[in-house]
Specification:
- The structure is a single chain.
- The radius of gyration is 17 Å and the shape is globular.
- The chain is built from eight helices and ten strands.
- By secondary structure, it is α/β, with parallel strands linked by helices.
- It has a six-stranded parallel β-sheet with strand order 7-4-3-8-9-10, with helices on both faces.
- It has helices at 32-35, 40-43, 55-68, 88-91, 145-151, 164-177, 194-209, 217-226, and strands at 6-9, 16-19, 23-28, 72-77, 103-104, 107-108, 130-134, 156-162, 181-190, 213-215.
- Bound molecules: dicarbonimidic diamide.
- Dicarbonimidic diamide (C5J) is lined by residues 29, 34, 77, 137, 162-163, 166-167.
């Protein structure tokens, strides 16, 4: 392997090193249902405006991976229209009046194919990118994600998306257990609870990166550019 084929990204808790050929970006659940009023996030009583700061850095990160020709995966948390993949424990939770499957201003909440389940237009997938519909918080549960990553020779995953401590962290833990080296792009992720975002970054990078690494988008893009063959 040549030096140019390797990325070294200054990160917490120490440099993140990846073979360029094994690197992919995974963007978790940047959906209207989480980022816009009237969706699932708002139905749970959250201030959805708190997630918007992550959009611009995620756009830059996505553009960098697209320019590099590296794999991009998008996930969407959503359920089948008959809710057969939504456990009662998940469906029953929440204060109401709007629950998963109920009709809100963006169609049926968190249902596959409804306007609210779509990825926000700024980050819409393009042809050739992998889109994973997932019924759980983790993107490996009951999905073909592992097979898609293996088919592309992916060994290292850069994470972006929302929310940091729920679907991003859950998927990062799942990926870590499956042998992927995971890096969280710290400004391309957000939470309805800023303290939970900070705590997540601290807990994944603690203990010598027990779950993974964390670095800002600029550091990732600089390393990506420097590794260009
Ligand atoms: C949540 C997610 N927060 N995408 N989903 O329910 O993090």
């Amino acid at each position: 392997m040549t030096a140019a084929a390797t990325l070294t990204i200054p990160a917490e808790p120490y440099d993140y090193v990846a073979a360029r050929a094994g690197l992919a970006l995974i963007i978790i659940d940047m959906q209207r249902d989480f980022l816009e009023p009237g969706g699932f996030g708002a139905a749970l009583g959250n201030d959805v405006s708190l997630l918007r700061a992550s959009i611009a850095p995620t756009i830059r990160l996505l553009a960098g991976f697209r320019a590099a020709g590296l794999p991009v995966v998008h996930t969407r948390e959503c359920h089948l229209p008959d809710l057969s993949d939504c456990p009662p424990a998940k469906h029953g939770r929440g204060p109401g009046p709007l629950r998963i499957g109920d009709t809100g201003p963006m169609g049926r909440i968190l249902i596959r194919g409804e306007p609210g389940a779509a990825i926000i237009p700024e980050l819409a997938p393009v042809d050739g990118e992998v889109v994973i519909d997932k019924p759980g918080k983790g993107a490996f549960h009951a999905t073909p994600l592992m097979a898609e990553l293996q088919a592309r020779g992916v060994t290292h995953l850069v994470f972006a998306g929302v929310t940091t401590e729920v679907c991003v962290q859950t998927t990062m833990r799942e990926a870590n257990d499956r042998g992927f080296d995971c890096l969280l792009a710290t400004d391309a992720t957000d939470s309805y609870f800023p303290a939970f975002k900070a705590a997540t970054i601290a807990m994944i990078t603690a203990q010598a990166g027990i779950v993974g690494w964390a670095a800002p988008v600029d550091a990732i893009l600089t390393a990506l550019e420097a590794s260009r063959p």
